[in-house]
Amino acid sequence: MNFDYHYHPYPSQRSSVIARNGMVATSQPLAAQAGLDMMKKGGNAIDAAIAAAAALTVVEPTSNGIGSDAFALVWTRGKLYGLNASGPAPKSISIEAVKARGYEKMPVHGLIPVTVPGAPSAWAELSRRFGKLPLKEVLEPAIDYAEKGYPLTPILGKNWENAYRRYKQVLTADEFQHWFETFAPDGRAPKVGEIWRSQGHADTLRLIAETNAEGFYRGEIADKIAAFSEKYNGFLSKEDLAGFKAEWVDPISVNYRGYDVWEIPPNGQGLVALLALNIAKGFSFAEKESVDTYHKQIEAMKLAFTDGKAFITDPSEMKVTAEELLSEGYGESRRNEISEAAIEARPYQPPGGGTVYLATADGEGNMVSFIQSNYMGFGSGIVVPGTGVSLQNRGHDFSLDSSDANALKPGKKTYHTIIPGFLTKAGQAVGPFGVMGGYMQPQGHMQVVMNTVDFQLNPQAALDAPRWQWISGKTVQVEPHFPNHIAQALSRKGHQVEVAVDTGGFGRGQIVWRNPETGVLMGGTEPRTDGSVAAW
């Protein structure tokens, strides 16, 4: 990656960070520092990613937890590896069983949408295969923050308060009371600057560290999760937990103007980002701040999402392969559907997300793109008593329509929103990138890649630039600082442009690029959250 980037018209709140020996970019400063500490102790970028991810379950519980799913792209020894740590639906669940409880669609909260948590297995697998330090040492910062506590940062405090107010209204049944005991111990959400701690988190993380996650899936924590699920008539069982292990997969890619853009294959939605770029690469973009540029980006993303929602599910049940969808011919056929006016895509309403993304790099050339999420903030609202384990609600994305590609089935993995990204060129690593935030994620990936490759923005500038988000039909949301004259011009092309009240729904990203000639690292962190780049 050439570090001689062009100036852009949206000055960054901060400059890109440049270093040589190591870099960790996360949405929370304490987690970034936890990762960097591992490298200074002799660990590598993989150890740093695990340490930061585990710390984030404590220092940013509004977006992820020990009960999360995770995905990773790991560059090491001159090769890119993919890890899918998304858990399947319980084997006892079915469309009929859910409908028998009075639901016409999968609920958001409670035990019904809970799938097997994958994050602890991801940490253990990454450590086993590529780590240098023992997992027990790598998880020490997370355990320390859980046990001794830490002060809340501004965006974290805001999101925590919003979640508490919402949960107080909707989570009134007995099974949700442990969430309030854990995350609102004083009868309210902790405030910015106040110390929050959780001994349950510390104890569970310590057990995961000491047993390489065996205690979570086949030991004491598994027993507690299964017992709680059974007590409140959930579907998740000890057998479901015992049968899970994170899976190594081959990443998928498209070549975009000489750069290979890599994503995890389905069941993740990274395919959507690649579909959009495969369509967009047939166009020429003379400048970033042009109505023609934004129009074609939005139209390409609409088509990509239409295909993604139609086909992405558990890979064993997909009716078409990623390779077929990413072919040159298919990309050209979809590109030909784009005209000068906004088109109507198959409508759907994307829900919000709750995710953490981090990027790490060390002085030896190792790099990690890692993402971890509960979904929709705190997830299901279920916290297993005494464990600090906040369970995800990934099963909410399953359809109760048996004809749908993502129809609920026992043991099936659902369409998954969280996606790590990675960039290479001519077989060499450029680096990890990601933009968390539900269905914004592939849209953020597309915009970050184009900001970098087409418009030569440095990492911080690529993240700072105003974003757009296709919602459904012809509706597009833009950030408050999006150029007004371009928003008006898009409206004249038929787009229904809405200016968002704030930037919270437009994703939160991190980037770390490496100069292949010097090994120097350049990183950017998200201005829309409490982001931080720790480096040395």
Automatic annotation (TrEMBL):
GO terms for molecular function: transferase activity. The keyword Transferase applies. It holds the Pfam family G_glu_transpept. This is Gamma-glutamyltransferase family protein. It comes from Peribacillus cavernae. It comes from the Bacteria. Coiled coil: none annotated. Keywords: Transferase.
